Amino acid sequence: MRDFAKAFYLSKEWRQVRAYIFKRDSGLCVRCGRPGEIVHHKTHLTPMNIGNPSIALGEDNLELLCRDCHAIEHTSDLPTDRALMFDENGDLVERLLES
Fold first, then answer.
1. Helix, coil or strand: residue 52
2. First vs last C-alpha separation in the chain
3. Do 42 and 57 touch, CB atoms closer than 8 A?
4. For 34-56, how does the pLDDT look when each residue is reduced to its tens digit (9 = 90+)?
5. Which residues contact 49 (CB under 8 A, 6 or more apart)?
6. Which residues in 2-98 belong to E strands, given as ranges?
7. Which residues lie below 8 Å from residue 87, measured CB to CB, with a gap of 6+?
8. Around 96, how many Cα atoms within 13 Å sit in the side-chain half-sphere?
9. 50 alpha carbon, distance to own chain's centre
10. How far apart are CA 26 and CA 55, in angstroms?
11. Whole-angstrom Cα distance, residue 94 to residue 69?
12. Which residues of the chain have pLDDT under 50?
């Protein structure tokens, strides 16, 4: 979490909209269908737009993602090549990417 967003992510408003997005997306990653863990901002938060409710809290800008799909969005955080992933046994396998 970036310093400028700490107070936002601790806010009551964020906790409420985060819970709503989990329910709306049935607890599943909207990209791959695995259990979702992270409510992702499609338009990433910046110090300039964090005060804009349609970006920070708007349901059209939010989606539930699993950790792997979220890492793909932030490719610098991806521990492997985009075309690879770790399976449930920890083995490196090809990732099935949507076209």
1. coil
2. 30
3. no
4. 999 999 999 999 999 999 999 99
5. 43, 55, 56
6. 38-41, 62-65, 84-86, 92-94
7. 93
8. 5
9. 16
10. 22
11. 14
12. 77, 99
